[in-house]
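Please check the following.

. . .
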Amino acid sequence: MTDVTAPTPVLRPHAEQEFAAELAALAAVDDRPRPANWRLSPWAVVTYLLGGTAGDVVVTPKYVGSRRLIEVAVATIATDRALLLLGVPGTAKSWVSEHLAAAISGDSTLLIQGTAGTAEETIRYGWNYARLLAEGPSEAALVPSPVMTAMRTGALVRIEELTRIPSDVQDALITVLSEKTLPVPELGTEVQARHGFNVIATANDRDRGVNDLSAALRRRFNTVVLPLPAGVEEEVGIVATRVAELGRILDLPPAADATAEIRRVVTVFRELRDGLTQDGRTSLKVPSGSLSTAEAISVVTGGLALAAHFGDGVLRAADVAGGIVGAVVKDPVADRIAWTEYLEAVVRERGDWRDFYRACREVSG
C-alpha cells in the first residue's frame, strides 16, 4: 500500500530545498555581519556558491569560475544597486541567480520569466477581475507580482531573460529600482521596499528576440559578465558534475566512466564555437547555435539515457552523436555545411575518433 503521507518527489527541487543542509550548516557557523533580512553573510553566500566547508559539512560548488566575479555580484546585492548577470547562453546565469536568491533570501521562487509576451502587470501588479467588477479597486482585489511581494518582504526577485521583455515593459522597473517604491494609483497607495529587497536580472545579447535595455534602465543595474569556461578541463568538470546531478534526479542508472565522451563533446563544441581546432591549424565555419556548456550537458544527459535504456550502460560515441548533430545543425542549410566540413576535415582525420565519425555520419544522413 502506498504511503500517502510521504512527500512526493519532484523533478527539480528548488535550490533552497535541494541544498537545505548546506545552507543550514553555513548559517550555524556564520558569525560575520549580515545585511538586514539576509539569511547568510556575504562571505557565507560566496562560500555556498563556490564551495568550501561549514563545520563538518562539505559545501559543494554550485559555480565554477572566478571568485572575484561572484564577490562583486554579492557585494552589489548588498547595496541599493540591482544586479544584471550578462553572458551568452549557457554561462550559468540562471543557475547563479537561483542560488544567490536561495542563499540570501531563502526563497528562489519569486521569479519573472521574461518573454515577448510579458506584460507590465507581470512586473507591477494585476487584478482579480471578478472581485474588481464586484467590489471595485481594493487591496483584496489586488494580485501582487513577484516584484511587489519581494518589496513587501525584503527579499530578492529574479527576472530571467530581461532583454526578451518588450522595452516599454522593461521600463516599468525604473521607478522600482530608483525610488524603491511601487505606486498603486488605483488605491492611492504605494508599496515601499523593505531592507533586503533587490533585483537580480539575467540577459544575453546574442540570442534572437533581444530588446536592448534603455540607457535609463541600464544605469540602474551593476552588470557582471559571466564568461564561458576558460579551458577544456574546466568545462569538462562542469559538464560531468551537472550530468551526475541530473542523472540522480532523473533516476538514470549510473554509467561507467563517461569522462572520455564528455571531453569529446566539449571539444567539438569548443572548436565549432571558436571557429578553430584546438591545435590552431584549421579554421572552421562557426554554426549559428550557441553550442554552450548547457547544451553540452543536455547532449551528454541524453546520451546517458540512451546508454542506460538501449545500450549496455557505457556511454559511447553513438549515444552522443545524435544530440551533437541536433545541437549544431539549427539552420538546415548553413549549419549543415559547417557540420559536414568539420566532420570531413577534422573528425575524419583523427584516428581515435573513427567511432565518432561513423556514428555522426549515420545520424547526419
Q: What stands out?
A: Residues 232-364 form one domain.
